[in-house]
Write a structure and sequence with these properties.
Layout: E1 3-6, E2 13-14, E3 17-18, H1 22-31, E4 35-39, H2 47-56, E5 66-67, H3 69-76, E6 81-85, E7 98-99, E8 106-109, H4 117-121, H5 124-135, E9 139-142, E10 148-151, E11 154-157, H6 160-170, E12 175-176, H7 182-192, E13 199-203, H8 206-215, E14 219-223, H9 230-234, E15 242-244, H10 250-257
Parallel strand pairs: 1-4, 1-13, 4-5, 6-7, 6-8, 8-9, 9-12, 13-14, 14-15
Antiparallel strand pairs: 2-3, 10-11
Helix pairs in contact: 5-6
Bound molecules: magnesium ion.
Magnesium ion binds next to loops.
Length: 258
């Protein structure tokens, strides 16, 4: 049986609307004996909130099966003074990090969501403050650098645009903590005690899920839901090992191909 890393947004749901058959597929993967870990780039809900959200969609998972970029940030930045441009909801997951308004060791950029809080987090004032800290020597970290994500109203600008903007202005390069960073996939494999070559990554994002996982040596399956676009596959050299129409088809696909 395999170890399987499963994305949340776009694979299990879109804007909280469940992908039909996805919850049943998770149940069947467990019955088939696969070891599962849920790996999200969500930066707008705490781990406990996210796990509860997934359970409310009928997906069986425990809080500790869910890996978030905020937890990765807490590990990477423990004990440091951090200027955080992040949603309030994830502050609980930044345990061990000292959040400051100035004299920061590092600037941490989080993600956007569909609420007005995004306007406050990425205000000009906050971005200019972050730029000043970078100019004074702080390191730049980001939870992810996604360009956009799929909402039920269509594609929405994501925080990667602000990461790129600060990199440009301060002539620096951000360290990515969530997908597609190798450390993030490494932590997921370690949690399952799994070899990367024997582990599958399943997600809807060609860059963050598929290309990132492939660079770490994982096998990959792209789902045609969420932010999946046919031209995203045609326009890149990234070739997932498999493409399924949705997570609902994953158990059969694995039975045939794994
Ligand atoms: Mg996704």
């Amino acid at each position: 049986m395999a170890a399987i890393l499963i994305d949340l947004d776009g694979a299990l749901h879109v804007s909280g609307e469940p992908i039909p058959g996805a919850a049943d597929a998770v149940a069947r993967l467990r019955r088939d004996g696969h070891r599962l870990r849920f790996v999200t780039n969500n930066t707008t809900r705490s781990r406990a909130q996210l796990a509860a959200d997934m359970r409310s969609l009928g997906v069986e998972l425990d809080d500790d099966e869910l890996q978030t970029p905020a937890a990765a940030a807490a590990r990477a930045l423990a004990g440091k003074r951090i200027l955080a441009l992040t949603m309030h909801a994830i502050v609980a997951d930044l345990e061990g990090v000292e959040l400051v308004g100035e004299d920061a060791d590092a600037v941490l950029l989080g993600g956007a969501d569909e609420t007005p809080e995004t306007n406050l987090v990425f205000s000009f004032m906050n971005l200019a403050r972050a730029f000043s800290e970078l100019e004074m020597g702080a390191d730049l970290y980001c939870l992810h650098r996604n360009r956009w994500w799929q909402t039920k109203h269509g594609p929405l600008l994501d925080a990667g645009a602000f990461v790129a903007g600060l990199e440009y202005a301060a002539e620096t390069e951000a360290t990515v903590l969530g997908k597609p960073s190798p450390a993030y996939f490494g932590a997921a494999c370690e949690a399952l005690d799994a070899d990367p070559e024997l582990t599958w990554m399943v997600g809807d994002d060609v860059e963050a899920d598929i290309a990132g996982a492939q660079r770490f040596g994982l096998r990959t399956i792209l789902v045609r839901t969420g932010k999946f676009r046919p031209d995203a596959v045609e326009d890149t050299d990234v070739r997932p090992d498999g493409i399924v129409s949705s997570l609902a088809h994953l158990p059969d696909w694995l039975e045939e191909h794994a």
